[in-house]
Amino acid sequence: MAVPAVLEEGELVLLRRREGDAMLLRLLRGPQTIEGRGVVDLSAEIGRPAGGTVSWAGATYRLFRPALADLLQQVRRKAQIVTPKDALEVVFLGGIGPGARVAEAGSGSGALTIVLAHFVGPQGRVHSFDRRPEFLEVARRNVAASGLSDRVVFTERDVARDGFALQELDAVVLDLPEPWSVTTAARASLRVGGHVVTYVPTYNQLEASVRGLRAEGFEEIRALEVLERALHVGERGTRPEFEMLGHTGFLAAGRRVA
Ligand SMILES: C[S@@+](CC[C@H](N)C(=O)[O-])C[C@H]1O[C@@H](n2cnc3c(N)ncnc32)[C@H](O)[C@@H]1O
Fold first, then answer.
1. Going by CA atoms, what residue is nearest to atom 18 of ligand 1?
2. 144 φ, ψ to 5°?
3. Are 99 and 25 in a shared domain?
4. Strand 101-105 vs strand 169-174: parallel, antiparallel, or unpaired?
5. Residue 220, number of CB atoms within 10 A of its CB
6. Domain of residue 142, residue span
7. Which backbone phi and psi does 160 adopt, to 5 degrees?
8. Which pLDDT tens digit goes with each residue over 66-108?
């Protein structure tokens, strides 16, 4: 489906100042209150192409359709969230694309949920589980702020104890401290050919995760880490930035066979 040429009433937009300050909001007719910031009226932008400028509260903003990166920047954190470089690798290792049915645990702050919901598209579904209601609440709010709620079903459950109660899933994504305690449940809920992906912060958790995948008969098992190094591109020379995110997490993945 082609992206409409002009902004439509009710769609989610990003209001961004050149200096970086940004917020997500709905494009509504008439004045609307932005929490902690005052009242803005974007009526004149309805029917205009994205990228226009808006003067508000003494500053100039640009109005865009939000990209996935903008959605992730707006996530309010309760749990440690997955970084974009790792989230995109999860999508790749999980073979997750338009129309996919995916289960993830735990929901945490919902950052990975947003990425998964983005890639499964309007025809896909993300079933997101967390055993703690306070995390589910935060995840629910973040996913709603991203405009993706209709692709996500949240359930309060301890998946290590009670499994997913779903069948024929295309992928199961585990971002929780003990993925090996969920690999049996993951296998039971996957279709043949579907993938499980685990994400953990330490080597010993990674080893236990891979052992869990082997014990369940998963094949094509891979374990890896994604390193990202930003570059400073100057007029006189280009070099790596001095600071780098040294460590985030380790990924493991496998495919269910018959
Ligand atoms: C690191 S956070 C997930 C972060 C999330 N992927 C994000 O990007 O925002 C881990 C979550 O797993 C949940 N969790 C841990 N063990 C669980 C289990 N057995 N069943 C369901 N949720 C669990 C925790 O409550 C916590 O919210």
1. 158
2. -65, -40
3. no
4. parallel
5. 12
6. 71-231+239-255
7. -70, -35
8. 999 999 999 998 878 899 999 999 999 999 999 999 999 999 9
For the Cβ of 185 lying below 6 angstroms from any atom of ligand 1, the answer is: no
Are 183 and 76 contained in the same domain? yes
Please count the structural domains in the chain.
2
Same domain for 181 and 162: yes
Ranked by mean pLDDT, which of 4-8, 49-53, 87-91 comes out on top? 87-91
Q: 254 C-alpha vs ligand 1 centroid, how far in Å? A: 20
| Mutation choice for ligand 1 from 130, 155, 200, CB with most ligand atoms inside 8 A | 130
Would you state the torsion angle of the CA atoms of residues 160, 162, 164, 167, taken in this order, to the nearest 10 degrees? 120
Domain CATH number, residue 52: 3.10.330.20
Instruction: Verify that 87 and 205 share a domain, yes or no.
Output: yes
| CB of residue 160 inside a 6 A radius of ligand 1 | yes
Nearest-atom number in ligand 1 for the CA of 79 is 2
- Residue 128 has what pLDDT? 98
Residue 80 CB less than 6 A away from ligand 1: yes
Pocket of ligand 1 contains residue 86 by CB under 6 Å: no
